[in-house]
Amino acid sequence: MAPPERRYLITFGCPDRTGIVARIASFLADAGGWIVEAAYHTDPDTGWFFTRQEVRADSLPFGVEELRERFTAIAAEFGENTSWRITDTGERRRVVILVSKAAHCLYDLLGRVASGELDVDVSAVIGNHAELGGITRAHGIPFHHVPFPAGDAEGKRAAFARVRELVAAHDPHAVVLARFMQVLPPELCAEWAGRALNIHHSFLPSFVGARPYHQAHRRGVKLVGATCHYVTADLDAGPIIEQDVIRVDHGDSIQDIVRKGGDIEKVVLARGLRWHLEDRVLVHGNRTVVF
Amino acid sequence: MAPPERRYLITFGCPDRTGIVARIASFLADAGGWIVEAAYHTDPDTGWFFTRQEVRADSLPFGVEELRERFTAIAAEFGENTSWRITDTGERRRVVILVSKAAHCLYDLLGRVASGELDVDVSAVIGNHAELGGITRAHGIPFHHVPFPAGDAEGKRAAFARVRELVAAHDPHAVVLARFMQVLPPELCAEWAGRALNIHHSFLPSFVGARPYHQAHRRGVKLVGATCHYVTADLDAGPIIEQDVIRVDHGDSIQDIVRKGGDIEKVVLARGLRWHLEDRVLVHGNRTVVF
Amino acid sequence: MAPPERRYLITFGCPDRTGIVARIASFLADAGGWIVEAAYHTDPDTGWFFTRQEVRADSLPFGVEELRERFTAIAAEFGENTSWRITDTGERRRVVILVSKAAHCLYDLLGRVASGELDVDVSAVIGNHAELGGITRAHGIPFHHVPFPAGDAEGKRAAFARVRELVAAHDPHAVVLARFMQVLPPELCAEWAGRALNIHHSFLPSFVGARPYHQAHRRGVKLVGATCHYVTADLDAGPIIEQDVIRVDHGDSIQDIVRKGGDIEKVVLARGLRWHLEDRVLVHGNRTVVF
Amino acid sequence: MAPPERRYLITFGCPDRTGIVARIASFLADAGGWIVEAAYHTDPDTGWFFTRQEVRADSLPFGVEELRERFTAIAAEFGENTSWRITDTGERRRVVILVSKAAHCLYDLLGRVASGELDVDVSAVIGNHAELGGITRAHGIPFHHVPFPAGDAEGKRAAFARVRELVAAHDPHAVVLARFMQVLPPELCAEWAGRALNIHHSFLPSFVGARPYHQAHRRGVKLVGATCHYVTADLDAGPIIEQDVIRVDHGDSIQDIVRKGGDIEKVVLARGLRWHLEDRVLVHGNRTVVF
């Protein structure tokens, strides 16, 4: 497979008004920019306008720094609440993965990376247990075991400080909580805001918190699901990126539900991570636009 | 389409132990009973055994009354907690439908009945608004308008008494709350226990109560759903019969979500009602076995 | 529900090149046009560019005729292969439905229209059998029975001529083959090109032609589906608008498959028809872009 | 997770008649057999009866050999066409996997095995290319590279002979073609009949043969799928075990379709393999019953 051509990804949001599309499109057209993909959305509830554009890097006569500089002037025309970002697909994405003992999401991500389907660098895997060190190292990826002593608040604080340090060393585009079983402290939620993704094994907002499959089994639901969301200080209440479900029935034991749900967790997390890394997810309030 | 052959439907539940299947199967075989469909389940959590059998009526040398009498003796062998029922598909099922203003579930059910897909008698439709009287009568079905005066507790009590009376006159196998917007009082929940089916327009237990699509939109979920459940005194918390979901995205307005969700409500309700009328739904505690 | 605000729908396609979005967006912005929804796509295989824009009618200082006139000049800039259309949602959409004996799709469409979910005029229903006349007339819609004599080629030709005439009298935006069991002659395919929609009861290209559910049952598939497509002279081979599937298993008889599949046919047809009437379906070659 | 308790799996098929369930259930009950799971099906088209029973090994006073011996007498009562099998979950299942270059299905299976979700021995992986040797060996599993010289019929024959020999050495319960790109010769189809499972990357019978995703893209379908089926001498026409689909749209390139479809291939193959190894799949003619 040939490497994908280099692109600049522009995401932009501001209060809606007439002429935004024309302004951005004209700016790009005047510079010779070849738009490969473009999406627009206006939220009628909030009156907020969103767009995402993919431009071929080689169609512009200048580089990403100048593009950002020029775009700063455009963005300023639309008010001080405007939020925008331009990223360069030529810069390789870095990901740090946090795990516990459950293997399925990590295996799945490593498989996608190894086969080239997910074109990122996994900078490190950090586990609060040691079990997943072997497979991580077999993929040539550093594994850090940071134990979280049960019932020891001070020890946990120290462990989180260590995790924070390890993550900071890689400055990743995404911190993936791939069935990491520890609740992040507020200061880490803040530090990783907008780039920490969690996979929760329920169709949120059903079954927040611990052991959602057991909750689902007890309630007798006919579908179980998984939710990929940005981590915020409110447990399992951050902006939802992706969800999916799978059918279960009375014949399914807890173990069956865990297994079936696991298949959904993997794909929901992989989709959410891909979209995040491709700058497809725009957050506004507690909701997402996924282009 | 030829009418389906007449069958006896046997449902049976008791604490699990060795030999139940053999006992029931031998009893039927000894009488020459031709089992057309059979399903078994044991719930490992509760140790409860469930079975449902369809027997060709013409394969037995006696009628349903004698079958029930003989089966009483069998059932007694398995203890006093045994619960069982034998119904005769030769007895036509009767249904009463409760509606408000939303038309889609009623239209869907009437269409299924008119086309012969759902082989039941709709004895009556009762509406707390008059809007759906026209289509009901166009199908040759009696429509009763029972107004529920807003904010008038006494008036509501009287209205429910009237509904109760109307329903009782038909002694239906199912009372279908097809987007009926009134919360049933506990005594009606008790009187209709096990035969009142509600369609709730969310994937329960998410979004209990009023305006679930608005709740879903606000939370930014990526799927909306519907749940068909037995009505109990706990609002939207009865045993779940069937659920399904449909994908929504940031581009969907509340109206879009209502429309998309409506398509799911219709099929979930129709499936749940069919299974209920075919004695496929066995309730144990707050969960269902759907054979 | 308040009536939706009036909008102009612009669909446009031409060979891709730099600056198309800017040109169209600037044209609209210069006229004060408020774009409510916008979608773009470029097909890398054919190099074809597609867009669809919804503009609030009251945001433009001129009417639809002048909009078309002005847009003609814009479109001309992009070459002679450009294809475009501007429609006015203020003009009510007209639909003619062709049926045979199967009732479920017709019931579903009539229910959607009656409840206001599908905001169109059903100008007429034409049946090659008389069975569905009753329900049609109960909705206040004219029903025409045009018998198709089996095995009589001349009689069929005359019947198709009659259908053609009836349809022409209404000049509908869509001719819906809602399980109409007659194969259209090539001249009707040509006359109704781009506005005749069929619902085929299989997941095409599987099971083209007659009795697809029987074919599916014989092959032992684990899902059955339905396909809404534009009618062309090649049987069941026209551009696909929408498809969906539902799970079946070994326990499902042909009758069960017909029933389960029917639920999919209804929603697939309703979605396809809605998208067609909202000018969301752009055809290029034998494929569709659905915005 | 505690190891699952040891069970005997009984699968049985014969022409339907009264009393089969009673005979088998009584036989088991008389021996004290505790039936943990039981399923029955009669195919009305062929008049064939199917059952599968799971019995706790420790509930019987004799071992699997004597169970088979005693059951032989029971089975004989139902005629010479009866087919049955009793397997012991205490005997660990062995699997050989055939691969080419595509990694996703192999990664997925190895991950499931490594995490204990799929409790089998992968005896060997055989590749007609060498690429997947590394990951295989990292899991401690032997990898055999058997090159298939393109356009050299004699060389291919020799390669297949080598594969046959390698497989035979392990006498596996399943030979899994996990995107193996070579068409098996008829004699291998015969030798592996009933235990060679293929994953085909389309919703069969659509898009038989080479490059199904390219075929799907060209046809403009709105869903792509995958099919797990038993391999027979008719290419992609063997009995279907499991299928599933995923939505695609006009924005998806071939690469996107390959990626989305890959997620479906993995789960469909994993489900089919699990069901096969648990003796849940009963083949009759070209169709399967999946209990």
UniProtKB/TrEMBL annotation, chains A, B, C, D:
EC number(s) recorded for this UniProt protein: 3.5.1.10
Gene Ontology BP terms: 'de novo' IMP biosynthetic process; one-carbon metabolic process
Gene Ontology molecular function, alphabetical: formyltetrahydrofolate deformylase activity
Biological pathway: Purine metabolism; IMP biosynthesis via de novo pathway; formate from 10-formyl-5,6,7,8-tetrahydrofolate: step 1/1
Reaction(s) catalysed by this chain's protein: (6R)-10-formyltetrahydrofolate + H2O = (6S)-5,6,7,8-tetrahydrofolate + formate + H(+)
Residues at the catalytic site: D236
Ranges where the ACT domain occurs: 9-91
The entry's keywords: Hydrolase, One-carbon metabolism, Purine biosynthesis
SUPFAM superfamilies cross-referenced by the UniProt entry: ACT-like, Formyltransferase
Domain of life of the native organism: Bacteria
Keyword Iron-sulfur annotated: no
Protein function: Catalyzes the hydrolysis of 10-formyltetrahydrofolate (formyl-FH4) to formate and tetrahydrofolate (FH4).
Family in the record: Belongs to the PurU family.
Protein name as it appears in the record: Formyltetrahydrofolate deformylase
Species of the source: Goodfellowiella coeruleoviolacea
Organism lineage string: Bacteria, Bacillati, Actinomycetota, Actinomycetes, Pseudonocardiales
